[in-house]
Structure formats: C-alpha cells, structure tokens
C-alpha cells in the first residue's frame, strides 16, 4: 500500500537577525507557521514568510471578482478582531496562493504605508475596485467605522457574485446542450450519412424527399464545412465586437433579453435584486439617497433599469418620495414598491430594501433550480428530434424497400 507523501513547498522569507540586521532567503517547509518556527530556532525573527510561486506566462491566474469578495471578507474579519490595517494586508497576502493577488495586496499596503487612505489606495486599482466599493470604504473611513463598512461591502460582494453565478448557471446549461447537438449533428452528417449514401446508390430507386434533403445537407457540409465554421466564428466575433463598441446595440440587447420567455423573468428579478441590494448597502453606509442612486444605476446591469434609476434620481432630487418615483417608472414590481414605501414611512429604508433583495435573490435561486429541472426533459426531446430525425431519414429508404418486397 502506497503512503501519500506530505507536500513540501518552498517559502521565501524576510526577517531580522540577532543584531537587528535585515536578512532574507528561502526555506523548505509544510506551511508558513513551521517555517517561522524553524527561523526562530536559527535566531532569526521572521517578519514576512510567503510561499514561492512559479511564474508561467504571466505569473499565475487572474484575479476574479470572487477573489476580491473573499479578500474583503477577510479584511472585515481581521479589522473586527482588532488587527491593524497594514498587518491585515500582510497576513492575507501571505495566505494567498495567487501571485497576482499577493502583488495587488502588496501594492495597496505600500500605498497605505506611504500615508494614503485605504479608499485612495483602492482607487489606484480601478480594474479591481469600482467606484461603489471605494465610495463605501471612504464613507467608513470618514465615519471611523471602517470594520463595519467592510463587513457590509463583503456581504454586498458575496451576494452579488452569488447572484451572477446563478445567472451564469442558468445560461450555460442550454448553451452547452446546443453546442453538443451541433457537434453530434455535424459528426452524423460528415461520417455516418455518407456511408448510407453509398448503400442507397445501389438501390436504383428514388429516395424519399426527407432522405434526399438530409443527403444534400450532408454533401453541403462535407464540401463547405470550413466556410460554415469560418462564418460561425466570424459571426460570433463580429457580434462580440459590436456589443463592445456600440452602445445602441447593447441597449437593444438589454431590452430584448427581458422579453425572452423564461430567461427574461429570471434576468428581470436579478436586476431588481441588484438594485435593492446596492441601494440598501450604500444607504445604510450613510451615503445620501441621491448620491446612492448614482452607484445603483450602473449596478443593475440592464439599460432598462439604468434609465429607470436615472429618472428616479431626478425625481428624488426634486423632493419626490422614492416609492412614488419607482411606481411612476413602470419598471419595478409592486412588491418592491410597497416594501420601499413601508421602509420610508417607518424610517427603516435600508432594512426593507435588504429584505427586497433577499426575497428576489431567493426567487432567482428557485427559478434557476426550476429552469434546470424543466430544461432536462426539453433538452432530451431536442436531442432526440435532431438525432432521431437523421436516423429516420437514413432508414426510410430501407423501410420503403422492405414494404415493396
């Protein structure tokens, strides 16, 4: 029986010797704690120990939004535990296995150490920390409640990324099935149909119209498969480029997807959840409502809601209540409007918006589960029609020949 070996990693370290001089080097070990213990036995006081990374074509995997959410939660936990800000960055950096994440945290730490505020330091990395994130951190620093705001930001990021993950799950399943159906159909047309075609030529009889259609389709795919493939790739890249460069096209897509059966209601509820979650987080942080709506307009992820939020901002700035403005847009569901009205009347708007966000996030979760269950039989039927249709087309001449005999 083979015994599994305990993994030993290489760690780089920095520290102070007995004379107080800075020293550094590399040491093998199982984890940072054991490496620090070894260094202390050697009379060295370690100040920094981190796992050595192997840089391959860019130095590690890219930083994802989920990584930022996890970092925010770690920061909130450490700040609540009373760990100093700079030390929190050091501890989190040492524990990260992603070299790019360690580099990001080290850059922010150096900026803070040089005298900049945390919000200012985060604004230097706009590709990872958006305006909403930085504004909330800034509000926390100004109010002297950074740990509380970081906890709210962490919850916001976790909920937002969870919602995005559910939407991606709902979208990726049918797309994957369509791709599989396309590949299976292509294989049948290129490899299987020609075999039957050679058999049919020996019949000397007229083939059924359905079979002839499949045979002609097979000949077309065999002769022009490279053109078809190039056209599909060009179409995909073209649409992607247009979507990126044309705001008008993006707006049209945003409006169109809300009208798609099943998918539309799912995206609609996710947009309502993002609106309520973002507004609740910013308003509870002490950001004035009009300013909070600035952050909300870009967070909904859909032009229909963005336009509605911009209208709400104009109405609220003139003195109109939030729930009246929401109702006038005709975009928001009545439940969200009524709960907002209750929140405004009771003086607990952030709490009621948080409940609206929780409700619609749960609705999205249930819809994704239901959609997955509904899609399974539909997908089986879809694949059955595609593959079964090709099989029937190939066997029709044989059945016809058998009836004649």
From TrEMBL:
PANTHER family linked to this entry: GENERAL SECRETION PATHWAY PROTEIN (PTHR30012), PROTEIN TRANSPORT PROTEIN HOFC HOMOLOG (PTHR30012:SF7)
The record describes its membrane topology as:
Multi-pass membrane protein
Protein family: Belongs to the GSP F family.
| Ranges where the Type II secretion system protein GspF domain occurs | 71-194, 276-397
Q: What is its main location?
A: membrane
Organism this protein belongs to:
Pseudomonas petrae
Q: Which residues cross the membrane?
A: 173-193, 223-239, 378-398
Do you know which InterPro entries this protein is assigned to?
GspF/PilC (IPR003004), T2SS_GspF/T4SS_PilC_CS (IPR001992), T2SS_GspF_dom (IPR018076), T2SS_GspF_sf (IPR042094)
Subcellular location(s): the record lists:
Cell inner membrane
Q: Which UniProt keywords apply?
A: Cell inner membrane, Cell membrane, Membrane, Transmembrane, Transmembrane helix, Transport
Its protein name is Type II secretion system F family protein
The family database entries (Pfam families) matched by this protein are listed as: T2SSF (PF00482)
């Amino acid at each position: 029986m083979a015994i599994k070996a305990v993994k030993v990693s290489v760690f780089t370290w920095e520290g102070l010797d007995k004379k107080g001089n800075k020293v550094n080097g590399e040491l093998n070990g199982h984890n940072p704690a054991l490496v620090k213990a070894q260094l202390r036995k050697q009379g060295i006081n370690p100040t920094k120990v981190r796992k050595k990374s192997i840089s391959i074509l860019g130095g590690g995997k890219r930083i994802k939004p989920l990584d930022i959410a996890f970092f925010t939660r770690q920061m909130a936990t450490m700040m609540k535990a009373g760990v100093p800000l700079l030390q929190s960055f050091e501890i989190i950096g040492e524990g990260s296995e992603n070299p790019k994440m360690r580099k990001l945290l080290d850059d922010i730490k150096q900026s803070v150490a040089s005298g900049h505020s945390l919000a200012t330091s985060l604004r230097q990395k706009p590709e990872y920390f958006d305006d909403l994130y930085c504004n909330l951190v800034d509000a926390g620093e100004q109010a002297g409640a950074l740990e509380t705001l970081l906890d709210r930001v962490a919850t916001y990021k976790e909920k937002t990324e969870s919602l995005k993950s559910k939407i991606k799950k709902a979208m990726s399943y049918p797309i994957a099935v369509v791709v599989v159906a396309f590949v299976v159909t292509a294989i049948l047309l290129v490899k299987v149909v020609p075999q039957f075609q050679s058999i049919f030529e020996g019949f000397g009889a007229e083939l059924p119209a359905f079979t002839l259609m499949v045979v002609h389709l097979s000949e077309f795919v065999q002769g022009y498969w490279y053109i078809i493939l190039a056209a599909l790739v060009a179409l995909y890249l073209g649409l992607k480029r247009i979507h990126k460069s044309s705001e008008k096209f993006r707006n049209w897509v945003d409006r169109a997807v809300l009208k798609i059966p099943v998918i539309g209601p799912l995206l609609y509820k996710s947009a309502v959840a993002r609106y309520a979650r973002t507004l609740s987080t910013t308003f509870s942080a002490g950001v004035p409502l009009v300013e909070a709506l600035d952050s909300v307009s870009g967070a909904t992820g859909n032009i229909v809601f963005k336009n509605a939020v911009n209208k709400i901002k104009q109405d609220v700035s003139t003195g109109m209540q939030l729930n009246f403005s929401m109702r006038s847009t005709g975009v928001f569901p009545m439940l969200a409007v009524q709960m907002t009205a209750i929140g405004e009347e009771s003086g607990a708007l952030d709490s009621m918006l948080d409940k609206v966000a929780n409700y619609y996030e749960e609705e999205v979760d249930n819809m994704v589960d239901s959609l997955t269950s509904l899609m399974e039989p539909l997908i089986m039927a879809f694949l059955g029609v595609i593959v079964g249709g090709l099989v029937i087309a190939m066997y029709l001449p044989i059945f016809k020949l058998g009836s004649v005999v």
